[in-house]
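Sequence decides. Our protein:
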Amino acid sequence: MSNSSSFPLLPTHSNSKFETYRLSSSSTSTTASYALPGSAVTQGRVHGKTLLSAKEVESRIKHDHLGVGAGGWFCWVDEEWGIWAVKIGEDFTPHFSTLGCLPVPLPSPNSPPAEYPSVWSFSPTTYLLSDGHGRIYPLRVRPSSTQIEPILLGPAYELNSSGEELRPFKVEWVGGEREVLISSVRRERLKDGASWGKEKGWEVMLVRFGEDWDQERGEEMEVDSEANKLEVLWTLKGEDVPLYAHFSSGRFLLGSSSHYSLPNPPIPTSSTSSTPPPPPTPLAQAPFTWTQTSTSLTLVFPSVPTKPSPLTLQSRSLAIPALLGFEPTDNRTYWDAVKPLESTWTYEPGSQTLTLELEKQNAQTRWPSLFSPSPSLSQPSFEDIPETLTIQQSSAIAQNLAKFTSSFQDDSEPELDASAAPSSFPPGLETGGMSSLMRQEMDLDEDEEEGEEMASTKKEVKWTFVGKEEGGEVEKVRGQETVLGREMGWGRSGFGSGEGRFPEVLVKGSLDALLFSPPTTSNPSTTFHHLKTFPALSYVLASKREIKYILHTPTSSSLSSSSNPSTAAVLVFSSPTTPAAQGDCFVYYDAEGGTTARSGVVKLGGGDEEGEGEGSLLGVKGVEVGAGGERVLVGLCERRVVVVRGLI
């Protein structure tokens, strides 16, 4: 639940009377799938003899195999190490292009477990290829509107362990001219000298490859040719893999279950040390409660010793006597107008209760708060007081949500308690739909406490700012929150997406899913900004099984080239582990203050009885297509590319 000082909630985004998500009876979305031009994409690459920890398995389950290239291209590596790219044309059909092949790694039986290969772009003409075994290759290309022509494959750049053996790593970010942010597991060799022990945490490193990599050479590089060493600019240590790693305004922001620190942090001096700010002062006890219907509002002041006189009802504001707990000069402005001639107030001497019945000027308009913000007042901001729900209202909302969450469940799945939110997520959600092959690679000898950290969709995340300059100045953000999902990766006609900002994150509330944008500076007093609330979505997600990704469409206006931006939405992708099972994409749209919101579901991935079909979903991105900037969903499956229109 969002409760830390770094994630303050805005009351104007609350929606306490939300009832349910309604499945759209007629969907305008269309789905088309296209066979991959090369070999299939695989998530079953051999990782060596070393057993993987629960954290390593979790990282591989959530890996997105579809990389974002420049100019609206998306890239991947197939099971034969072929490098491919796809771009959605203005007629919404894909254009495929080959970028050649990665030199095939030749690991020894005793090599440490490898990561998945990946493709990244520095610019429209420079790409970066990672084989997942500890090598990266720069690649020069010549792009056009319908194809990418590979020009020059650069030399291999390696990351070596202390024993000069290749150290596998995962690329987290590329930028600048030759800088790459990577993460790598820390592990040590066992006493026999031939095998590796279990992971001992992670290291995040900013590395750089050579500036003369694109000098002309006669032949394409082979994997056993002389390689260059990656220059390590700085290294951070942590206990878990990064779940969030992005760059903006000269700093990285890293999110993980633990903070990252320099291996040998400097001793703070009087010029660099700072005293943490005091915790925020809690609001004073609210002197009233309020609720509303479609046409009226009711305010109840429960402790008024004497009858107020006079008490004048106005259309835009409430002049409040000091005896009700306010300053004598307070004149609070309503969120919207009321009808003073049709509004009344009563006082009960026995119970010392003052009740105001206010008629709304604009019927059918739901008020997110009673008062408009009044930052100039010295007293607590009583516009933060949430609307009070009756027991009957709360029960009705819970029953509506329970009916919705059970509608997609199989008969064999447990029913949810309609009277309260679930205390824990179902096993399928916590493991992200772990396949049996992944379970075989888990270190089953780890203790129970470590095994319990498998709940990737319900992980408490801590945040660390890191300066890009050599030395990596570190600032830790106070507080931690349960992160449900991340912003969907996006491709555009130009290079990159959202370079001037940090991508948004979806945080778990008690029942709601809360959308936040990270702060742009590392000042200890800065906070994440509450952008939007998807009411009751955390509760709804408790019924979903075999979840692979939870993504949301970006709300940043700088991302969209369309004059009619789409409604914000959260997309939940399931990826069943059995060959013939169907994969689904559940979409939940912004309620926009209403009591209901639209939802939908489309098939995305899965097989048939013969084990054919699209295959498991391995990556998903969004892109704007055409002059109107129509948003299209692009899914990479094991054997096909899927294009979905009209969904986001």
